[in-house]
Amino acid sequence: MNRETLISKWLDNNLNDQELEAFKSLEDYDELVKLNKNLQAFKAQDYNTEKELESVLSKINIDKKSSTNWLKPFMRIAAVLAICFSAYYFTTTLDTTVATEFAQKTTIKLPDASTVSLNAMSSLAFNKSNWNQEREVNLNGEAFFKVAKGSSFKVKTETGIVTVYGTQFNVKHRLNYFEVICYEGLVGVSYRSQETKLKRGKSFLIINGKIIAKEKENRTMPSWLNNASTFKSLPYIEVINEFERQYNVQITLINIDKNQLFTGSFAHDNIDLALKSITLPLNVSYNKSKQRITLKRD
Q1: What tens digit of pLDDT does each residue of 176-225 get?
Q2: What SS3 string covers the chain?
Q3: How far apart (Å, rounded) are the C-alpha atoms in residues 151 and 73?
Q4: Among 157, 197, 192, which Cα is nearest to 177's?
Q5: Could you tell me the pTM of the whole model?
Q6: pLDDT at 90
Q7: Pick from 178, 132, 183: which is nearest to 155 by CA?
Q8: pLDDT on residue 44
Q9: By CB distance 3.0 to 4.6 Å, which of 108, 121, 172, 274 could disulfide with 116?
């Protein structure tokens, strides 16, 4: 006998002993009895059996749904936990990126206690979670490195890769300009599948895709760490570009050869003195208006 027939005969009190046992064996027997007791308080003395059966079955379905309602908040919690775990995994495997603005410098401490000083308008990215397996940073701009002893350390730029065998060096990667200077120990510069090793005082310079020979570097650290930019026989446009980064200005050249070589320096903390430093040696005049500067040769 099917379930609906058993329930109908039970409501009519018309079950024999065998059918009663079958009814008691239904999985929702307790719910049926409970619902029937509750309905007695509202039931008229005369009622339609089929209608009552439909009502009871409807109640049973509602109760069954409510008994599974606990799954909904559970699934919500599980979903939130899954999202949190995914967010945690995603954020902990992301690179850490540090960037500087115009006229700004900053020093970064890497997970192994190595330090990196970033010059203006530069950015450095590295992965903390993978640092013990691979000490590697991506650089865009200029930075001075003091590398702690340990496994291989690499500085990646779009132009070349610097592999560290020593501890202190400077890397400058700008548009059409790539320079590495070793201040202590030994570094290797990979460019076009060839590696050049630099000892203390040696440099590797590429301007517009051309390797440029440089004199030995006698300083113990780059001048920009002491708030000054120094140039030795470098195109004047490189001086102008650096000046704009340090003072957040726009410079226009009139009747000036931007590729002429310049030797000299300018301070980062006095714009008027700095302007004189880059114009007097070339007999160039300047006009300054807020963030715009015009350099002109008559």
Answers
A1: 999 999 999 999 999 999 999 999 999 999 999 999 999 999 999 999 99
A2: CCHHHHHHHHHCCCCCHHHHHHHHCCCCHHHHHHHHHHHHCCCCCCCCHHHHHHHHHHHHHHHHHHHCCCHHHHHHHHHHHHHHHHHHHHHHHCCEEEECCCCCCEEEECCCCCEEEECCCCEEEECCCCCCCCEEEEEEEEEEEECCCCCCEEEECCCCEEEECCCEEEEEEECCEEEEEEEECEEEEEECCEEEEEECCCEEEEECCEEECCCCCCCCCCHHHHCEEEEEEEEHHHHHHHHHHHHCCEEEEECCCCCCEEEEEEECCCHHHHHHHHHHHHCCEEEEECCEEEEECC
A3: 49
A4: 157
A5: 0.69
A6: 47
A7: 178
A8: 47
A9: 108
Q: Who's near 32: CB < 8 A, 6+ residues apart? A: 7, 10, 26, 56, 60
Amino acid in the structure at residue 200? R
Any idea which residue has 């160039």 for tokens?
Answer: 284
